[in-house]
Amino acid sequence: MFNTFGSLFRLTSFGESHGPGIGGVIDGCPAGIEVDEGFIQAELDKRKPNNAFAGAAGTTRNEADKIKILSGVYEGRTTGTPFAFFIENTNQKSQDYSKLADSYRPGHADRGYDMKYGFRDPRGGGRSSGRETIARVVGGALAQLYLKKIGIEIFAYTEAIDGIYAKDFGEISLSSCGERQFFAPNVEVVNHWQKRIEEVRKDLDTLGGVVCIEAHGVPAGLGEPVFQKLDACLSYALMGVGAVKAVEIGDGTAVAASRGSKNNDGLQYDDEGNLCYASNHAGGIEGGISNGQPIIARAYVKPIPSVAKEQKTVSKQGENIVLSIGGRHDICAIPRIVPVLKAMAAITLMDMVLLQKRMENNGIS
Amino acid sequence: MFNTFGSLFRLTSFGESHGPGIGGVIDGCPAGIEVDEGFIQAELDKRKPNNAFAGAAGTTRNEADKIKILSGVYEGRTTGTPFAFFIENTNQKSQDYSKLADSYRPGHADRGYDMKYGFRDPRGGGRSSGRETIARVVGGALAQLYLKKIGIEIFAYTEAIDGIYAKDFGEISLSSCGERQFFAPNVEVVNHWQKRIEEVRKDLDTLGGVVCIEAHGVPAGLGEPVFQKLDACLSYALMGVGAVKAVEIGDGTAVAASRGSKNNDGLQYDDEGNLCYASNHAGGIEGGISNGQPIIARAYVKPIPSVAKEQKTVSKQGENIVLSIGGRHDICAIPRIVPVLKAMAAITLMDMVLLQKRMENNGIS
Amino acid sequence: MFNTFGSLFRLTSFGESHGPGIGGVIDGCPAGIEVDEGFIQAELDKRKPNNAFAGAAGTTRNEADKIKILSGVYEGRTTGTPFAFFIENTNQKSQDYSKLADSYRPGHADRGYDMKYGFRDPRGGGRSSGRETIARVVGGALAQLYLKKIGIEIFAYTEAIDGIYAKDFGEISLSSCGERQFFAPNVEVVNHWQKRIEEVRKDLDTLGGVVCIEAHGVPAGLGEPVFQKLDACLSYALMGVGAVKAVEIGDGTAVAASRGSKNNDGLQYDDEGNLCYASNHAGGIEGGISNGQPIIARAYVKPIPSVAKEQKTVSKQGENIVLSIGGRHDICAIPRIVPVLKAMAAITLMDMVLLQKRMENNGIS
Amino acid sequence: MFNTFGSLFRLTSFGESHGPGIGGVIDGCPAGIEVDEGFIQAELDKRKPNNAFAGAAGTTRNEADKIKILSGVYEGRTTGTPFAFFIENTNQKSQDYSKLADSYRPGHADRGYDMKYGFRDPRGGGRSSGRETIARVVGGALAQLYLKKIGIEIFAYTEAIDGIYAKDFGEISLSSCGERQFFAPNVEVVNHWQKRIEEVRKDLDTLGGVVCIEAHGVPAGLGEPVFQKLDACLSYALMGVGAVKAVEIGDGTAVAASRGSKNNDGLQYDDEGNLCYASNHAGGIEGGISNGQPIIARAYVKPIPSVAKEQKTVSKQGENIVLSIGGRHDICAIPRIVPVLKAMAAITLMDMVLLQKRMENNGIS
């Protein structure tokens, strides 16, 4: 169904940006997970408008975004029954959007919605609002609590903003990328990004970037050989986050101009008898199945379409108009999109782990 | 489930490359589609080993690949009941693969399978064989027969092989790309690709490429706003074909270095009052929903991992070995992958059309 | 999944009897339904412990059971987005159950739970508590609001308690059965039932009964011919309510001793040209598909297994013990089960209506 | 979807009674099952028209009904990939049905189909034909092969025909009920049934009966506590077989007039320390979960609606007509329905076993 993600670890998301709040139900959650509410809240805080990680990129909408757990936890652990949660909306200003009601904003789904539903809720996007991703971040946080226990850790960091790549300014380091401004993988790039964002804001424009997700500790064998391939599922998860226009696994687009002999990741036992791969062009996935190397995926994020610059467009009434969008908008989907992409990767891996566990148990011994 | 694709137009695929054959069942197929078997067979023929489109790239395995319809058709039209079909395997040579049984081929899922299942069928990949895609091509052909009737046409062509882009040699033309060698979008590039493939074959290596899929005539409004976004579903469909390592929608990776003011596709009414987009950076999808422009998606295909060159790898028994793979392998997944990607896009769009039709009918009037 | 009911109108239920509360999410709810909260609350009130309909049969647990809508409604109408709701638990007394923690109560799932999960939450049943049915009643009420608009009305009444049949004391009348004590279909039987229940309570025992559900105004053509037959789905819905041990459609068990010539419901046009059935042995369903006559289904409800009388059983520790169950238990699942069964029938019919609407829209015209 | 049954062990059925044949695909089948084709064929033979078990009750349509396995088996064992199969139709006589094209046969879905689809295939029912149950019998046979290995055996026998109960003529014995005429549970009743059927045939009428299904060796703990209850799923499975109008678990309808103290199945340890139930009123299911006792379910089968006697009905064109149905029809759905009901119970239990195995593997240890 339209509001459910995952097959065994299933998140059903609900709520609108200008209704009472945003929530979700996770069915299929294994029993016994220690529910570290501090961790869940910390992931939510990273997605929050105007948070400490956003630097110059943020909106000025303030939301407390405090999670309230409604079911599925007993004495601090999941019980295996549905885990339901709710986050109240506390700062709705629907009047902000009234003047946009009749404009088809370029780069938005406004016209698509009108064609689809015959009407459109201009108040911040309704279900299609970025606030819906709150439910995903909670689901992803719960998944991460489980995955950590079995040795899988997920990292997400900003690789580039507006074509400025972090790797050109310092070494990529996963160790504290989750705590750094912009979720930068090194300190050196931060000021460059900050400066560029400020310039673009002054220019009344917006900008995009690249997010890298890595999953370490993933055992070989996750993913199904025909349709629920690990790379296909990850791709669905990441492309399903608004603003993402391309998804790569491992070397991604570059493989198309490589050769088999180079692109293959050769394996050898080293002197101590450990199995080693010579490279990781495949991003940890071969034939749709994890091979034990780190999973590496990239999401390419388009610039926020709501630009303050004047743009030509049309009104619902059929006139050519000129539009300039103010309001409390972000200049860049990064870094707020980073915890969302991390969450989607986490839910996907969680689902794959449970699928694999299920299969292991099916044989006749 | 693992062997089913689609939610309303559901293809369940079955069969192994070295069993009796490959088949599938399509449940949810609308009644009344004229089943043009010639068209279905023609799509299958394009995917066939050693076909006329493959040029120098092909394998020497010969298969008749003749479709036999088992159910769901009456007097030449679908009845709305499950459409089942079967294609016999006629040319199995499992002995070819025997010497690979104990080697983990680089770039393949061999080790993943061993980790996953505890064993692996070396006979051409079993379910994970390219032959499984026969079922997808049939499903896609049936979907195309429906989509054509409602004005949606899908094109798939090879954009580049080994970094040689067709657009550098002539204009891109959709009109007969489906009938040209390599599914080339112009005549001029064909010899360049042919030559490069021959060189690489002599070099005992393999090569990759880029496939572009376009869907014209797609109405605005397809796709769901939260999880079953059109771009997410397309991405799942294309990344789920073996060898694909990146998927782009519209400008894809390039959006990450663009600006909002440039990346937005402005709309205006022209002098005759027709709604026109100034560009199609979005590839026809905004906010996960089609906007009425052509859908444009790209799949980046890795070089075939089975190279004749010597490669270092390990055996199942834990030794370092050197491997050189002969057998009846393709040098390049392109062009045989082209009809498969086209089919996957067709099934996805078909599903989205049916989802949209369902929704339209749900309101209280 | 385990906590979801329905395919197109999907209720996902969450919450435990001794947690914060009970809630649910309905995905697939059509847009535009006028959400009459008074009606939903009235249905909930009929299911409430110690309500006006229960007469002598009830428990003394008091719960406000006030619904709070969390999403999916705008200006009093459903929007087509997920409809989420929550009902707080206000009167938990888990100490009541402590002494039962180590006993396997006869007629309960206590031992099954221990075998299944390795542990068991003795506090009123957790998810398996009757309180979970709150979510079903809300889902059913929303479904009824839609069904009424398209002319389908659902009635549920108590046909018999402890073998005392209402029809033996007066005519069956649907008109105000929903407002009468015990949901009795006539006034005459009420005192007989009241008296019998009091006797049995004094005897420290419990008793069962029969509930009849009728749906009027159901158009011909609902239900699918192979697996999602209307009668199979209704059966799943009703048998899935705790305490139900048999489900009948139409004449039910009696058909097994009837003859074809008698059991068939003949059709004829009357003098005014209206199509009339001579009988309704089939209960409105033939070949799994509604035929336009009233749908008639019966659920046979077992006596509450928690009896105050002494019973032999075993403890978790492996001893033979004698148990007498006090606490705030009902004497009879009827009448509180009546609105639950009505709700399950409503959700099932709603699902079937949406399935049928979907199909109607799928053909090529 | 409409043509799929089961959630983890999923049967997708295809084919029409007058097309090339009937088949199915089972996805989710565990690897390693020894595929005893003889057993599968024997189950099919019991369902066959005009078989040795039918006695006087059968049709004269002859079909070979030989199974052909299309995929999923390697060296005699299931591989875990989809198990597909096909059974050719060899004896179609669609002319038999031509004269019924415009009549709405009483007791059939004819009018429902017309209302649903706008047309109806008179040739023996198309998908709704009894021949579709072939796919179920194969699925059930495969499930039984697995269930037997884990100690679960399923029995199905005829309890009564036309009100004549087997238990009134001799003891009920499961041991060879599957090999006896009419699947009778004792020898004594066979002649009584045979005689009654002959009388009713002469009277140009048809008759019904009761089928009992027992599953022995089912471990405690199968079934889910909220929606996928074992009794609800069994009920869906059995009521979904054409002609079944009531389903009972354990004492079934009788519980409604029993008392808690009597209806509860008390447990005690006997002198050797074995856990014993004093009775099995619950039919092995309490709270939707198996309790370790034999599962007992009953299906009440209506008389075949195609009677040779004259019946009043209407034509599609709106006239009152008189109809008498000849053709190759059974007089009684029993005994041919018995292997079908057995198969449906087997698939349901198989699904529940796999669900339970999945769950066991989900916890964090």
TrEMBL record, chains A, B, C, D:
Its cofactor is FMNH2. Pfam families: Chorismate_synt. Pathway: Metabolic intermediate biosynthesis; chorismate biosynthesis; chorismate from D-erythrose 4-phosphate and phosphoenolpyruvate: step 7/7. NADP(+) binds at R47. FMN binds at R127, S128, S129, G287, K302, P303, I304, P305, S306, R328. CDD domains: Chorismate_synthase (cd07304). GO terms for molecular function: chorismate synthase activity. It is an enzyme of class 4 (lyase). Its EC number is 4.2.3.5. Reduced FMN (FMNH(2)). Belongs to the chorismate synthase family. Homotetramer. NCBIfam families: aroC, PRK05382.1. This reaction introduces a second double bond into the aromatic ring system. This is Chorismate synthase. It comes from Taurinivorans muris. The gene is aroC.
